[in-house]
Amino acid sequence: MKFRRLPVRQLASGDQLSIPVYDFKGSKPGAPSVYLQSAMHGSEVQGSLVLALLIEHLQKHPPLGNVRIVANANPLGLNEKVGEYTAGRFDLSTGENFNRRYFLPTEGFDWAKFQKHFFGAPEEKIFAAFRKELKKRIAARAQQQAPYADRLAVRLQLLSIDYNFCLDLHCANRSVRHLYTPAYAKDDAAYFGIPFQLLVPNKFGGAMDEVFFSPWWTLAEKLGTSIPVQSFTLEFGDHEIASMVEAKKDLAGVLHYLAHKGVTKGKPKAGHPVNCELASYHVVHAPVGGITHWVAPLGKRVKKDALLARILVFRERPPRGEEHLVHRAPEFIGHEEL
Amino acid sequence: MKFRRLPVRQLASGDQLSIPVYDFKGSKPGAPSVYLQSAMHGSEVQGSLVLALLIEHLQKHPPLGNVRIVANANPLGLNEKVGEYTAGRFDLSTGENFNRRYFLPTEGFDWAKFQKHFFGAPEEKIFAAFRKELKKRIAARAQQQAPYADRLAVRLQLLSIDYNFCLDLHCANRSVRHLYTPAYAKDDAAYFGIPFQLLVPNKFGGAMDEVFFSPWWTLAEKLGTSIPVQSFTLEFGDHEIASMVEAKKDLAGVLHYLAHKGVTKGKPKAGHPVNCELASYHVVHAPVGGITHWVAPLGKRVKKDALLARILVFRERPPRGEEHLVHRAPEFIGHEEL
Amino acid sequence: MKFRRLPVRQLASGDQLSIPVYDFKGSKPGAPSVYLQSAMHGSEVQGSLVLALLIEHLQKHPPLGNVRIVANANPLGLNEKVGEYTAGRFDLSTGENFNRRYFLPTEGFDWAKFQKHFFGAPEEKIFAAFRKELKKRIAARAQQQAPYADRLAVRLQLLSIDYNFCLDLHCANRSVRHLYTPAYAKDDAAYFGIPFQLLVPNKFGGAMDEVFFSPWWTLAEKLGTSIPVQSFTLEFGDHEIASMVEAKKDLAGVLHYLAHKGVTKGKPKAGHPVNCELASYHVVHAPVGGITHWVAPLGKRVKKDALLARILVFRERPPRGEEHLVHRAPEFIGHEEL
Amino acid sequence: MKFRRLPVRQLASGDQLSIPVYDFKGSKPGAPSVYLQSAMHGSEVQGSLVLALLIEHLQKHPPLGNVRIVANANPLGLNEKVGEYTAGRFDLSTGENFNRRYFLPTEGFDWAKFQKHFFGAPEEKIFAAFRKELKKRIAARAQQQAPYADRLAVRLQLLSIDYNFCLDLHCANRSVRHLYTPAYAKDDAAYFGIPFQLLVPNKFGGAMDEVFFSPWWTLAEKLGTSIPVQSFTLEFGDHEIASMVEAKKDLAGVLHYLAHKGVTKGKPKAGHPVNCELASYHVVHAPVGGITHWVAPLGKRVKKDALLARILVFRERPPRGEEHLVHRAPEFIGHEEL
User: Pick from B83, B89, B173: which is nearest to A89 by CB?
Assistant: First the structure.
């Protein structure tokens, strides 16, 4: 195992922020490789705990393919504190969400020319040429002056571009475990053992998983190739919570996927996740401010028209009042005025 | 029940922040009275949920003594957001902790003169004169220009000064339920049914409970009277968590105390809390930054020398390494370098 | 003059945030109308001072056309404080820039159908139908649940949609006075007397000025009509600075433009601004953190290759050292290590 | 000149924050020594610019006495950003003001015993013993686990304890140049050429200047010795402003003081500052929120009863209205409602 810390920002104080990079060389030539990173939003500590366990595991059980691990991928986000809170979702200087700043290297790509040039070529030749082109563009971008979030993103793209699979470990504020998977990889993703899967189409919104798979998915659409990469955003529960008990379970799922894909040894076992198209994923906005008190249980089905939450506002009227508080789920949160 | 919203701050936008005040008139003349407030630090939402249930309860079961309830005592703190976090522990403009700005009305008080004047007088006469004096001083302070935290504090002191008991409902970041009680009131406090009690001496550090009991405790010390007031800071678990299930239990404890003290009807039942002198309460500081992973279970006894927590830092060495990580509790947190 | 405060957000504390709206009815039927707003980013106080003077002016000198003024358009932004700083550029909850959340009402618009339907129709008929359609779409959007920044933006769009001109008053952090003008309106914009003009093409990036002119500019492109609206982002110097002396000058420029366009009486006078295509506007990113000490004078021409700024970092080497610090403007900031 | 970076905090990311320390050895044995630091509140960049120039100066003109310089004394404060603002006045985790956390080493000191022991001893012997005792206590404190602000403060105390003079370079938000001087040193302080001096009594409020002089002042009071140290808080104008033109003037003042005290060579020249007892220093609190528009000129005398500022709030009434806005300075800010 090879360890480095790569500097990613020189602070005003003259000190350096850096990211730790662990490289495990695979024992089996030609075996598929994986890149993993955690905590791009700083507060997503569970993913880093899982990676600590994975590093420990791989030291005892060397992988077949190459494995690169970047734990705590975003030192600025991790260090951003307000009170005891880690305010690492966005850059406090700019408001930019750290997972929306990746650079799509196929912007302005001449697909027609590429298609013509490689017509009838074998896949491995096409893939090698395409990866080389992506890498060249990412490297050029990395030379440009840019805000921290953009520079960090492109650095992580350079670190991951040579790998077959990319696992980006996140957490959500309060949430059940779920993941974002490109729709084409949903059967493989079942090996993670995560109960809920959001199926993502070939669309780029600036996130790591998208920027990793989207160029190759587009290539497949344009040239009729297979898709040689997979990438996922894994949401390992509530942010700011580091649970060793859960981390062992989370790691087990990651290892099932890696064994299934041939990166590590082992007998993989698939789960039976609930799949949901991203288009069917709804965000519910509170109609008023107040103290939100959830009624619907997290991670369970709710009936249409069921009340999801009450919002407590202190007014004269008694609390938990009239039945007009019950609204149609999932479009509205019911709220009450006390 | 009488309801008002008292304005406490005019914002730069011209809008008003206000606090909701609920007044229940007691049915039994001369019965003891209670003042309750919640969420002085904004994020302490559980206390506000408990007060919502208490309001509902008192509407069905009118109290014997007067009850005043100020839910969400600090609108600025409640509205201060960074990410989804409520950054209400201190004023983001000034850094001032909202529960350290109360005004001690006995500052510069001429105890000798007061003692001489009331020598041999009956307690009720002394108490009435003393309360009048406190009130006059608080009212004078309320006229002065001051930062928001100071002005709010003195407003809340004016609202509570006429009551016998003061319950200030808080939460801590992640914590078991516990309370701060003036040492002289620890047997009464057992009725709250809260498992851990911190016994506070007669010292003023700027907090609501202290400012409420300290003048009267000092009076007792100087003139040999009894102490006619009690006040407590109740810590209802983790901040940012509103749990209806827990709120019902929390309310039950509050009602046991109130029944025990004669403010409400009911058959009070005392608990068996663990008592701890404030001087024996230790804060443990992390020696380095990192991802803290608690080993010691929250709310349970730990052995001397036991490891309390691990701090994960990504370095080359393997995780969960040498046994030098085990330190003497409670003075150090063990930490490891990965 | 008619005055209202429109509620735009109910805070967690139950209090309301609102925006002040001043309506002046024009004395001359059919005269062009103007909508003005200020401080969308909270800290842009100079614009609000200018609007205060404008309100005063219009009370003495009633306008020919209708004038609507929304001073402090964003109460949340204005009230967001960290230290003495007004952190109103983005929503501290979400990171969203308040001037990037406007809703483009022509999204999915069937231009071909509209074109066919109004072929050969007189402009005023086309304009009336188009404005009606825009208004309908904005009103529908305003009904949807959405985060505060989005809801506020659409409310301001509804307030402004009936006006001919839109002046959105901003400030930049530290800056000379400049403005963003749609390229087609640059000669009219010269009446503001602002020395620097950025010429904006028909592109929508989420800002108020763009959302106001872009649908009409596209209409002109599609149907060959004239463009009946104009909108500008005026940058009135440094944010957080309210200068009465400068406000009077800023107001004079606004009044020259309004007189020129027939909204108010007066003898308009045009200035001679420097025009710059938006594509030629460069943002310079600091290559390292440090204390930036500007060398290039603000608002003055700098030569190609001139040093723009030094960045002071405390290292062993002496300050203001070697000449390698001189870089090609405007692509790099020179920096030195002390 | 000797240069070091001392680590003062290990961040969660594993990176180190450090402070740069420059040591110049004096050419004249026994000459008085000086310790300087800047930017304890992060945003006070002007002081750091002055120190950069001082380092440059001392390299060309070596001092007679020892000089220690800690530029950017607080890396956490310097790196704390919200928007483009440096939020370094207090620790965003705790709200603690970075210049209120110094440790008074004479707390619990047995003055009577010390006095008895050194009765009749020569001053240099007393001073040496007293400094040794202070140092021992500070070093012991530095071993304790504590929050960052406390640990940093005690580190800076250790770095400065051996020096005769301490210059702590600060800035205020918007301000004229002024300084805090212990009352006994006001004639020497006049050499700084700073127009306004606040005369501080022997009271400890947690700041650097106080913790440096207070033990020695108390020693003088108890034992009748002279006071061998001086320390000052110099306020070099607005924070967040780095002006080279002003820095040269600021440096000139510092050098006049140092030459006057024999730390450097040169012909010192004293200024004629306005002196003001700290007790006569008034802070004015805004009675309402709004856009403050200063009427009283900064740094100039205002008459009793003069209006200091207007606070603009958008209400229906016309701006700059009735004369009841004029209040007695300095107790109130007038405010108006528009």
Answer: B83
Chain C contacts to D (CB-CB under 8 A): 3, 20, 45, 48-49, 52-53, 55-56, 59, 71-72, 79, 82-85, 87, 89-90, 173, 242, 244, 289, 291-293, 312, 314-316, 318-320, 338
Residue B191 sits at φ, ψ, to 5 deg, of -70, -20
Query: Which pTM does this prediction carry?
Result: 0.94
Q: Where are the alpha helices (DSSP H) in chain B?
A: 45-60, 75-79, 111-117, 123-142, 148-160, 186-189, 208-223, 244-260
- Tokens standing for C229? 């609206």
**Contact call for residues C32 and C165 (beta carbons, < 8 A):** yes
B10, B91, B287: residue with CB nearest D145: B287
- Is residue A327 scored above 60 in pLDDT? no
* Contact yes or no for D318 and C59 at CB 8 A: yes
Tens place of pLDDT per residue across chain C (338 aa)? 999 999 999 999 999 999 999 999 999 999 999 999 999 999 999 999 999 999 999 999 999 999 999 999 999 999 999 999 999 999 999 999 999 999 999 999 999 999 999 999 999 999 999 999 999 999 999 999 899 999 999 999 999 999 999 999 999 988 999 999 999 999 999 999 999 999 999 999 999 999 999 999 999 999 999 999 999 999 999 999 999 999 999 999 999 999 999 999 999 999 999 999 999 888 888 888 888 888 888 888 888 778 888 888 888 764 443 222 323 333 334 444 44
**Interface of chain B toward chain A, CB-CB under 8 angstroms:** 3, 20, 45, 48-49, 52-53, 55-56, 59, 71-72, 79, 82-85, 87, 89-90, 173, 242, 244, 289, 291-293, 312, 314-316, 318-320, 338
CB-CB contact of C43 with C174 (8 Å): no
Please check whether residue D144 is in contact with residue D25, taking contact to mean a CB–CB distance below 8 angstroms.
no
Q: Do A146 and C285 touch (CB under 8 A)?
A: yes
- Report pLDDT digits (tens) over C141-158: 999 989 999 999 999 999
Tokens encoding A294? 């959830």
C-beta separation of D22 from D55 below 8 A? yes
**Local structure of residue B15 (DSSP, 8 states):** -
CB neighbours of residue B335 within 10 Å: 21
Residue B290, C-beta contacts closer than 8 angstroms, at least 6 positions apart: B311, B312, B313, B335, D10, D12, D14
What does chain B come to in residues? 338
Q: How far apart are the C-alpha atoms of C245 and A272, rounded to whole Å?
A: 70
Of B15, B75, B81, the CB nearest to C18: B15
From the CA of D56, how many Å to the nearest CA of chain C? Answer: 6
Separation between Cα atoms, residue C332 and residue C287, nearest integer Å: 8
Report the relative pairing of strands C309-313 and C291-294 from DSSP bridges. antiparallel
d(C-alpha D27, C-alpha D233), whole Å: 27
C173, C224, C229, C231, C316 from C217: Cα distances, Å: 30, 10, 9, 11, 57
Chains with 3 or more CB pairs under 8 A to chain B: A, C, D
How many whole angstroms separate alpha carbon A105 and alpha carbon B298? 48
For chain D, the residue count is 338
d(CA C313, CA D156): 20
B289 with D313: Cβ contact below 8 A: no
Nearest to B49 among A3, A20, A291 (CB): A291
At residue D205's C-alpha, the angle toward residues D200 and D206, to 5°, is 120
Please state the ipTM of this predicted complex. Answer: 0.91
Angle at B143 between CA B141 and CA B148, to 5 degrees: 80
Going by C-beta distance under 8 Å and a sequence separation of 6 or more, which residues neighbour residue C240? C43, C45, C85, C86, C171
